[in-house]
Amino acid sequence: MCCRADHEVRARTRSQQVEFDTVVRLFVEEARRLAKLDHPNIVGVHDVFEDNGTAYMALDYVEGRDLLDVIEAEPTRLGPPEIRKITHRLLDAVIHVHDLDILHRDISPDNVLLDRNNEPILIDFGAARDTARRASRVLSALQVVKDGYSPQEFYLAGSPQSPAGDLYSLGATLHHLLTGAAPANSHMRLAALAEQRPDPYKPLKSRMPGYDDRFLLAIDRALNVFAKDRVQTARQWRDMIDGTATGPVSAPLMGEKEVAARIQRLVADTNAAVKVEMERAERERREREAREAQDREAREQKRIRLKQQAMREAEEAANAITTARMATEQEPEDDKTHDPENHSETLCAHRGNTARPRLLDRIWRGFRRQGETDQVGQMEGYGA
């Protein structure tokens, strides 16, 4: 969509310039929203600015390793007490994000940094990228998702998104932290339910020593395939593991009819979203073709104007040369007075002409007159 030339970022074609400008503007708007976040477990946005034809977010530096590196390189570093503390800190951070009507959109182990004190810092919000993707025809084909961590609705263009989507990603991150692996891809789980096969997800309850049922059930509930069956808010999740939540904490079990009805509604919503996207793409295609046609017409008109101007200038130059030549040919020779210093120039000017130059004519006439008058050195046009 864009390229870098002499430190400037530009759209590759003029037809994409408006779209590129829109993406940059929306990125800046989203970045400024993120700059309002002020929480010890969320990376701070130090500055938002535009330069070099594009936009930037400058984030505070966090010294530490991301959670994915810790899981793979130091699997024994975090025990149940540390993981429970990390869970509470992340839930508090997500509560702060959602209270400001912002979605993270990319919670995963590689987007959680741990400092020296095992304090988690949430980084790399995907909301700005998703906002740009939704506004761009070129970028709309790209999916801001991560297999294993993104809920199924994140895969569908135009599908409604809610805080429950972030909670699914947080649940998948904690699942990876507890078991060493991310849960099954949400698309695979949805396909299994649609084919009336068992959900490949295995609940954590009773499988993880050192954790109480409330803690594990909250993660299981956050990882429901369907958004309406998940924990709906991070505050509700925190209350569940603290034992202060009201109502059932176990994930609801659905019968085959309920699953089929849910999938049917999901398919209908998906088809509606796809139809909207197709209509938008077709509308943008027509607008793009109209802009390209206008550009071609403008270029053709400019080419015609330049050609006509060049022809007029050539014609005027030819007329000027003809007029000058005619004036030279009609000029009386006897009324001319020539400077001897310009003899060589005159000779050069007439070199190659079939007619004898006027200067040579006068010299020849002078020699003839010398023979007639016996006056040496007297030539026409030159006094002794």
CATH superfamily of the largest domain: Transferase(Phosphotransferase) domain 1
Along the chain, the helix and strand elements come as EEHEEEHHEEHHHHHHHH
Report the strand count: 7
Q: State the end-to-end distance.
A: 84 Å
Domain count: 3
* Main sheet characteristics: 3 strands, antiparallel
Strand order of the largest sheet: 5-6-7
Beta-strand level of the residues, as a percent range? 5-15%
Q: Helix share of residues?
A: 40-55%
- What average pLDDT do the residues reach? 80
**How does the overall form come out from the CA principal axes?**
elongated
Sequence stretches where pLDDT stays below 50 over 5 or more residues: 342-356, 375-384
At CATH level 3, the topology of the largest domain is: Transferase(Phosphotransferase), domain 1
Taking all Cα atoms into account, the compactness measure Rg is 42 Å
Task: Give me the number of helical elements.
Answer: 11
What structural category characterises the helix and strand content?
mainly alpha
What is the CATH top level name of the largest domain? Mainly Alpha
* Proper CATH architecture of the largest domain: Orthogonal Bundle
Biased composition (Basic and acidic residues): 335-344
Keywords: ATP-binding, Kinase, Nucleotide-binding, Transferase
Protein name: Protein kinase domain-containing protein
Domain Protein kinase: 1-254
